[in-house]
Amino acid sequence: MNTNTISIGLFIDGGYYAKIDKSLSQTLAMRIDVTQLMQYIRSKVAEDCGIDKSRCHITESHFFRGRYRASDANAKNLLFSERHFEDTLIANDVIFHYKHLREIDGNVIEKGIDVWYALEAYELAAIRKFDYVVLITGDADHEMLIRKLKAMKINVILLTGNFDSSTGISRLLKEEATLHIDIAEQMAQNHNLVKQLCTHVNK
After folding, report:
1. CA distances, 101 to each of 11, 72, 80, 112, 118 (Å)
2. Mean pLDDT of 52-64
3. Residue 184's Cα: distance from chain center in Å?
């Protein structure tokens, strides 16, 4: 591990992140502040290393999501909210990766995002040689990704938000990670964390 600075790679499963945001919006009329979330991640890595946060840096961050084509998003009144969220990602130097959603017989189909997420995280971890990889996901299929990253001697933090049944994750995924952080559990124990990590929906 680098003794001067700690390099962190952050990979966000957009579908899972959206579920967390939706749950917070419905229960607390709040949503996650991306900037503050990234600061929180740096502080948790620093805490795990026993060093000052100033020595921990998110050197690369990626967001993966399926989304509607422009005409479909416009018809569903989603264009503004999607663009507004993208502005937040851009402001925080988060690279976003999208694949088109398909709708068949009223069912929304998302193909290939999970595989793309895993391949990109593994490849970039190998190239960039991160000290820590932080995965925001609840997908049980990423258990093998965590194993592979750990085999490269990379510390893997799984960050989740188990606010309700829609944001629950598998026990095996939690157990495989070097460290599991559930922000729902953390917020329940520390109400100041809600103010730190969230903003009101109307902001």
Report:
1. 20, 10, 18, 10, 19
2. 97
3. 14
